[in-house]
Design a protein that fits this description.
27% of the residues lie in helices and 33% in strands. By secondary structure, it is of the alpha+beta class. The strands form 6 sheets. Strands 4-13-16-15-14-17 form a 6-stranded antiparallel barrel. Helix 2 runs antiparallel to helix 3. The longest helix is centred in the N-terminal third of the chain and has 36 residues, at 3-38. The chain is elongated, with a radius of gyration of 49 Å.
Amino acid sequence: MTRSASGQHARARIKRLVPIALATLLGIGGLAAWRVEHAAPPPPQEKDKPRAPANRVLLPQDASQLAFLKLEAVSLAPLPASDPMNARLALAEDRTARIFPPLAGRILALKAAPGDTVIPGAPLAILDAPDFGQAIADLRKAQADASLKKKALARAQTLFEGEALARRDLEAAQADARAADAEADRARLRLANLAPPGSRIEGQRLVLRAPLGGVVVDRQANPGTEVRPDAATPLFILSDLRRLWLNIDLPEKAAALAKPGATVNFAVEAFPGEDFSARIEQVGAMVDPTTRRIPVRALVDNADGRLKPEMFARASISQPKAATVIRLPVGALLTDGLTTRLFVQIGPREFERRRVSIARQDAEFAYLTPDSGIKPSDQVVVRGALLLASELAQGE
């Protein structure tokens, strides 16, 4: 085959392939256009989710944090003028009797037990006291002698009037009668100290009676026990527990605040969150050289009997016209530098963080300034506030 024939054959072949290539390109282009036209629309862009209000936390219903949260309603309290001071409740000594046996003897029976309420004159114990029998005998002897001396004086007076007796003998009879009367009075008073008037005397049995009304606070006596008047421990302690003393250890720096008649607010562990009040009766005249504290005594009205002697207390002196402010436990506060915040419940499982200002703070309570925006009806988180702060930080 010649070279010219081969060239013609190649050109003829190219002419046949060109229409096929054009058709293929048109098909691909149409398919691409169809795909573009019928392609799925792009997913709509998500709108921004609504953000929770600032400083608020809404916990899910099944949130584990709910089990750790503790809420308390805030309360109103006078702004204290001093930091809390150590104090102790004690028996009011002017309403307390410590009863010792007036004579040596042996206890036959007990008529009162610790915790009993007694009235004045109520029997406490019965003693077998030989000295009591001797006191009864002394009185009877003195009364008999006084009666005899009176009769002798009457005879002497008759004889003197009949000029049968010298004046000197009459005066001697008068002196003897007066001495006998004095001895009878002494014996009667001695017996009256042992057995009040109206008591039934049975031999040498002595009845110990309550000198005042109150509660039997302590009893150190058992049947058959030998007792003596010079014992170191009283048999009974009676006290009127409707009044108690609050003994306060006052620091020197607060000496100007303690004045008779001033009000003292105090709290005890037995009644957390509850305030009691007392009135200062006496301020010590000197500072204790060891503790550097001034002893202060206040009177407590304990008509309901809830407070007990020897309870420890934390006391603070109130100003005469102290402002009433919001008081809450210090566990509710979150401090960040100079900023103090807390969480307030504003709805079911919803809490709001608020900034507050502290007027005074001690180891137990914080007193807020009036501009803190906390109301007495607010429920604040006193335990678990850090959990809410962590949730709030994650949301930010």
